[in-house]
Structure formats: C-alpha cells, structure tokens
Amino acid sequence: MTAHRQHLDRLWQRGREFLGSDVAVMGGAMAWVSERTLVSAISNAGGFGVIASGSMPPEVLREEIRGTRALTDRPFGVNLITLHPQLDALMRVCLEEKVGHVVLAGGLPPGGAIRTLKEGGARVMCFAPALVLAKKLIRSGVDALVIEGAEAGGHIGPVSTSVLAQEILPEVGHEVPVFVAGGIGRGEAILSYLEMGAAGVQLGTRFVCATECRAHPRFKQAFIRAGARDAVLSSAVDTRFPVIPVRALQNEGTRRFQEKQHEVIARFDRGELDQKEAQLEIEHFWAGALRRAVVEGDVETGSLMAGQSVGMVTREQPTAEIIADLVDQALAALRRRDPASE
Ligand SMILES: Cc1cc2nc3c(=O)[nH]c(=O)nc-3n(C[C@H](O)[C@H](O)[C@H](O)COP(=O)(O)O)c2cc1C
C-alpha cells in the first residue's frame, strides 16, 4: 500500500469503521434506482450501498433486503422516508431482517423512531439540513449524519454543500461521523471534504449510469447527455402554494409543471378551487413521475431527478470502476502535492 493510500485510509477511517466498508463512499439511496443490483454492486465494490425504500410497502422492502443479501455479504443500508404512512412497519422489517444501518430521510424523524431503531440493534443516520438540526439530532441519539447540499439530485434544501460543510463539520464533525452529499463527482472533492472533517461522502447521480444500475437506458442516456446546468430546480411559482424543491433535468415535464401551477393558481384565484384542493392538485402533478422515467424510460414527461454532478457522468461504467476512479482521483491529488512520498 502506498503512503498516499494509507493517508487516504486514515482520513476516512471513521467512516469506514462506521459503515464497515473498504471506502467511506455511500451510494445515496435513489428511489426506483437503488434496488438490489446497484446496492449490492456498490457494496461489493467496497463502498456502501443503500436501498431506497421510497413508497415500498413493508413486505416488498423485506424482499428487497433479502434479494440484496443474496447478492452481497458486505454491509448495506436501507433508506426510509419518514413521511411514509407505514414507517413503523418498515422499521420493524429492517430490524427483523437485521439491517445494520437505517437512513431516515424526508424530514426530521418522528419522536421515538431513532430510539426504536437503536434499541433494535440498527445504526441510525439522519439528514441534517442545518447546524441547529444537526445538534438536535445528535441529542436525540443519532449515530451519524448526512449533510446534503442544494447541488444534489432529488428533493433538496436551499443551502449549498460547500456552505453546509463549513457550517456543520467544524462544529459536530468530531461528535458523530458526518457524510457529505451533493455535487460530488470526483475524488478530489471527496478528499477535500474529508480534510474538512467529513467521515465520508454520499454520491447519487454519479452511480445512475453504473452498468449494474437497472434504470431504463433512456434515463441513463439523458444523464450522459446532460451538463451541470441542465439539472435545474423546480420550485413553487407562488409562495401561497409551497412545493418541496426538486433538482431534475429539464424536460417537457418540468415545463408542464410550471404551466400546471399557473393554471391551478388561476382557478384558485377565480374561486373554482379551495386552498387545499389547489395544493393537492399541484402536489399530485409528479405522482408516479420518477417511476415512469426510471422504469419505463419516459424521459419526456417523467421526472429526471439528477444533481449538478450529472455533467461528470459521461458514459456507462461498471460500479467497481466508478469507485476505483474516485479513489484514484483522490490519490492523484495527494500525489501532486507530495510526489516524493509515493
Ligand atoms: C434519482 C434520484 C432519486 C433520489 N431518491 C432519494 C430517496 O429516495 N431518498 C433519499 O434520501 N435521497 C434520494 N436522493 C438523493 C441521493 O440519495 C443523494 O443524497 C444525492 O443524489 C447526492 O447528491 P448527488 O446527486 O449530487 O450525488 C435521490 C437522488 C436522485 C438523483
């Protein structure tokens, strides 16, 4: 092992120990994308795959966990959406199936969820969108945090990864392992977040075009063609009708969403809809749209959730090669700084 590799391994040692993986790179859960083949491929390549449970009912999740375990004996995690109406049953499935790490996403976890999971033997990770919430989650007993900046694909907060990292890592990076996500496409960026005190990183967009990823070929093609500026934010057009901002590739669907909001709000202003009906109609616009794009390949009107790092996705590649490239890029950066200590 080279001196540079030893240095890198020291930098992400806490993350590796926490995850039980060779490299502290998590494959961020992506609904419909992060199923057994991609998750196991990431874990088998030395990273840490995470199943996206999305809207799965509990027994489907159980099958996915078992299916993943049949493909890897390395550790992997499960991502649960806290707004899921069957969250308790999903947590029970994770504990019964002895999932080592559960990532709670989609808002602060309901009271007791962290304790239930920990008492059941799982390690719990949560997303911290701001420093005060990071501290609150640590007080609630969370084992590790993910901080995800606005560069990321999917549902996002307003603050960039670089700012979140500066605000949160120096304050709580020594208390629990913190994994940085959003906009990471290369190893040099991984190295710099580790040097800022991160325990590891989480990447989503970069893994979509992994050979083992079962996303539809048209979904992958859209990623390969797109540049950073194509991954845009779709947000509310009127503050009276808030929507959770989503970063996705611009397409007919994102254009129609703008029109839809204007149309619904005009009907509300004319008194044809009440507030709740209008809000629901806006929210329902994207129902099933990610599945349509990922599974059926409807890249025109489906949701092409993608982060700005999509510009660094240039071809389909085996998962192991993607992870090896990230590690090589981090090592090359160390080598450039200090060529003598090879
Ligand atoms: C298509 C897609 C679907 C996603 N679905 C989820 C999800 O179900 N749960 C979740 O916590 N994060 C989800 N994310 C976020 C990823 O887990 C990860 O944090 C993010 O992609 C990291 O930023 P990056 O895209 O810049 O690498 C999704 C991201 C994408 C691109």
UniProtKB/TrEMBL annotation:
InterPro entries, A to Z: Aldolase_TIM, NMO
Residues that span the membrane, as ranges: none
Enzyme class: oxidoreductase
UniProt-listed PANTHER family: 2-NITROPROPANE DIOXYGENASE, 2-NITROPROPANE DIOXYGENASE-LIKE PROTEIN
Pfam family of the protein (one): NMO
Protein name in the entry: Enoyl-(Acyl-carrier-protein) reductase II
CDD domains noted in UniProt: NPD_like
Entry's EC annotation: 1.3.1.9
Source organism phylogeny: Bacteria, Pseudomonadati, Pseudomonadota, Alphaproteobacteria, Rhodospirillales
MF annotations from Gene Ontology: enoyl-[acyl-carrier-protein] reductase (NADH) activity; nitronate monooxygenase activity
Keywords: Flavoprotein, FMN, Oxidoreductase
